[in-house]
Amino acid sequence: MREFAACDAVADLAPYIPVASPQLAAGAYEAALLSLLDGNGGNAAAAAAATGAGAGAGAGAGARRRERSCLVERVRAWPPSLYAGATVARAVARAAAAQPGGVRSAPLLMEALALLHCHSGHHQAAVAPCLQPPPPACSPRRLAAPPRAPCGH
Question: Could you give the angle at the alpha carbon of 21 between the alpha carbons of 15 and 27, nearest 5°?
Fold first, then answer.
């Protein structure tokens, strides 16, 4: 798994990782999920954004989106008994909280976190992020039409 993670290829490998016979050690499934969460593509995007490199930032963001989409797919597809869901949920929660707009600004992370909470039977925790107010950029106040002038003036 480490070799694929080092090459940022876990998203390519993940659909083919066996879940039954043979079954890998729990650490392998955890490592795959965590690699999809913060793979090299995400780190490249962060580095490009920090240095102001525009071309790499778009490619890194696309890679991060693909990895996180694959993360959601694997959490859906893999039986929760294969990995320590609490460990993965904590990592996803930290990554979501680190987003500029919080968990609501990262729908793939929010979905992965909700699925992980549901797998562990914490249904209330699964819906909690959905009940938070939207980020300021999407607040209803900003989306409202500007006030109109009174009639007759």
Answer: 65
Is the bond preceding 140 in cis, omega lying within 30 degrees of 0? no
- Which of the 8 DSSP states describes residue 14? G
| pLDDT tens-digit readout, 42-92 | 343 333 333 333 444 455 677 788 888 999 999 999 999 999 999 999 999
The string over 97-126, giving b where at least 16 C-beta atoms fall within 10 Å of a residue's C-beta and e elsewhere, is: eeeeebbbebebbbbbbbbbbbbeebeebb
CA distance 17 to 28: 10
Task: Tell me which amino acid residue 144 is.
Answer: A
pTM over 0.90: no
Residue 55 token pair: 């071309």
C-alpha–C-alpha distance, residues 153 and 151, integer Å: 6
Q: Are the beta carbons of 31 and 5 closer than 8 angstroms?
A: yes
Give the pLDDT of residue 9. Answer: 79
